Amino acid sequence: MIRVLFFGPVVERIGNNQATVAFCPGIRLQDVRDELAAKFPQAFEIVCFAAANGQHVCDMSFQLADNSEVAFMAKFSGG
Prior knowledge:
The chain has one domain (2-74): Ubiquitin-like (UB roll). It has helices at residues 9-14, 29-39, 41-44, and strands at residues 2-6, 18-21, 47-52, 55-56, 69-74. The chain has a five-stranded mixed sheet with strand order 2-1-5-3-4. By secondary structure, it is α+β, with helices and mostly antiparallel strands.
């Protein structure tokens, strides 16, 4: 199983701060994003950053292992 965390305004659009996606060998970060974007298109309109297992990931072909933790977040700013 892959645990997925959401942050900031993405949470507001999904209505939850986490989800799970079934693991299958060869699953990539892009596959997880695509599956969730099909369910929550309004949330993924604003997703700009992804992380896997605590590391920022730019390459969406990054392969995930079983029990990976993925995070999706929008841009944010502070003051």
